[in-house]
Prior knowledge:
The chain is built from four helices and four strands. A four-stranded antiparallel beta sheet has the order 1-2-3-4. About 30% of the residues lie in helices and about 25% in strands. About 20% of the residues are buried. With about 90 residues, it is α+β, with helices and mostly antiparallel strands. The protein has helices spanning about 10-20, 60-65, 70, 80, and strands at about 25-30, 35-40, 45-50, 55.
Amino acid sequence: MLGMMIMDVDKAIAVVTAAGLELTDRRRTKSDDGWSLSFSNGAELEIIDGGRVTVSGKGVEIVTDLLGPAAKSRHWTKRDRSTPHSDDS
């Protein structure tokens, strides 16, 4: 897990909403193995029950800055996934 910090869903909500972002949706993931959170700035946060964090959406930078290493080590955007490697693989 690359030294990833475990993130609790309630702690994540508290940190992000304390910065002024409104929680607009909270629901269990489709596979029922964690929580999917949506915030007013367009960020989407998924926290798997074991603590793994994935951040996506328009507001990814703000949320990863707020949550620190727990989110930064796992954030991605659609642009990141479609960019080829430097060796064109």
